[in-house]
Amino acid sequence: DLLDHFQDTFRFIQYGLDEGHRILVHCEQGISRSATVLAAFVMKSERYHPSEAIRYIQRFRPIADPNPGFRKQL
């Protein structure tokens, strides 16, 4: 369940960006978990709808495809 981690990951990513750092979010395959975390970040920071956030991420990582359970959490 990634929902429990969204607040912490948002703060961590935002802090890194605020400090001028580059951010790398990864998981084993870079398809579902990391894409979901980034989609949640983009949704909150840019006020994107879930489908917009996923499409945005897919511009940079075309294989990004959060699984249906993670999509529901968004």
UniProtKB/TrEMBL annotation:
Keyword annotations from UniProtKB, A to Z: Hydrolase, Protein phosphatase
Pfam families in the record: DSPc
PROSITE patterns: TYR_PHOSPHATASE_1, TYR_PHOSPHATASE_2, TYR_PHOSPHATASE_DUAL
Membrane-traversing stretches: none
Residue span, Tyrosine-protein phosphatase domain: 1-74
Superkingdom of the organism of origin: Eukaryota
Stored PANTHER family: PROTEIN PHOSPHATASE SLINGSHOT, SLINGSHOT PROTEIN PHOSPHATASE HOMOLOG
Protein name, UniProt field: Protein-tyrosine phosphatase-like protein
